[in-house]
Amino acid sequence: SSDGMHFTKAGLAVDSSKSDGNFASVPNLVLLSNGQVRLYYVCDGKDICARVSSDNGKTWTKEALKFNQTNVGDPDVLRSGNHWIMYFTNLDPNSNGIYKAYSSDGLNWTPIAGRVIQKAANPNIVNVDPDVVETSANHYTMFYGDAPNPSSPLNLYRATYVGNIF
User: Fold this and answer.
1) Of 47, 39, 42, 43, nearest to 18 (Cα)?
2) What distances in angstroms separate CA 5 from CA 1, 10, 11, 108, 135, one per listed residue?
3) CA-CA distance, 166 to 163, in Å (whole number)?
4) Which distant-in-sequence residues (6+ apart) come within 8 Å of 165 by Cβ?
5) Terminus of the chain with fewer CB atoms < 10 Å: N or C?
6) Using CA of residue 44, residue 50, residue 53, residue 57, what is the dihedral sign?
7) What is d(CA 104, CA 85) in angstroms, rounded to the nearest whole number?
8) Cα dihedral sign for 92, 94, 96, 101?
9) Within 10 Å of residue 92's Cβ, how many Cβ atoms?
10) Which of left, alpha, beta for 129 (phi over 0: left; psi -120 to 50: alpha)?
11) What's the CA gap between 31 and 97, in Å, rounded?
12) From the centroid of its chain, how far is CA 99?
């Protein structure tokens, strides 16, 4: 895109039929200090993977991401220096909610205990797709969805936090 408004499809970033269990979705990009771009995404339909590009996203190399959680997805990663935070969804119906993990390098993640967004009271509702933005210094807004099942329309919610998330 030359204007940030009109984009042209430029090529395949992740061929999930070959390396990600026929399922890659919910991409999240982070610009690294060395100019590379790291892509976090859902792989295998229930895990989080990472790839890195040195050529502005034309080609991608899979990275060794260590995340000791299963049945997770929807990564949203923020970075401040050497402090990395990932918000993610636990897809297990009994543990569903939005959670948080910490990393000092963006590849080795340690979950932080407890849910950031609690599971809905209705057991058929699942929380998904967190997206966090810093709206002003130490003021954060999270948007996330909930739905009775993956094929239902999503309700979109907003949550706010004041303080240092890192």
Assistant:
1) 43
2) 7, 15, 18, 35, 22
3) 9
4) 78, 85, 132, 140
5) N
6) positive
7) 9
8) negative
9) 15
10) left
11) 27
12) 11
How would DSSP label each residue in the chain?
--SSS-------S--HHHHSTT-EEEEEEEE-TTS-EEEEEEETTTEEEEEEESSTTSS-EEE--EE--SSEEEEEEEEETTEEEEEEEE--TTT-EEEEEEESSSSEEEEEEEEEEPPPSSTT-EEEEEEEEEEETTEEEEEEEEESSTTSPPEEEEEEEES---
- Residue 19: phi and psi, rounded to 5, are -125, -5
Strand partners, 141: 133, 160
pLDDT tens profile 39-54: 999 988 889 999 999 9
Which amino acid, residue 57? G
Residues 6+ apart with CB under 8 A from 96: 89, 90, 119, 126, 127
- pLDDT over 80 (residue 38): yes
Query: How many whole angstroms separate alpha carbon 21 and alpha carbon 78?
Result: 26
pLDDT at 140: 96
